[in-house]
């Protein structure tokens, strides 16, 4: 899919506005000229500037493109790519979205390890085929444990244990 730069620029500006709005609720630090909101506000302002640059570039490109040029033909804001005509590619995309929703809904009650394993196993099996089922399951298991060790143990990110608290390490 080809998207004119003005579209992601506008999305970036909207996201930055949300970030800036959230920083208004950050409490001030007693005895400090700046508080915990300073860094997110700087990032939000930089995101607004970047979004504006994308919007301006996208609108210039749109005006300057003819039927034969530009990032989207005829100056359109959005153009469907060739891969979107393929049923297999659309099925892969739909599976990815479904698995993301599944992860969001199930990760906390089921736990990070089983949920991540199921998601990775489903993706690996779909993309590699049933012929490689054994190696896909092995890769999903190793990747899940490696991610859990990296984030849960080394970086100390609290990952949900779900049904596995008795075996937490």
From TrEMBL:
One Pfam family recorded for the sequence: TctB
Highest taxon above the source species: Bacteria
Record domain DUF1468: where: 9-160
Transmembrane segments: 7-26, 38-56, 86-106, 112-130, 137-159
Keyword entries, A-Z: Membrane, Transmembrane, Transmembrane helix
Matching InterPro entries: DUF1468
Protein name: Putative tricarboxylic transport membrane protein
Native species: Tistlia consotensis USBA 355
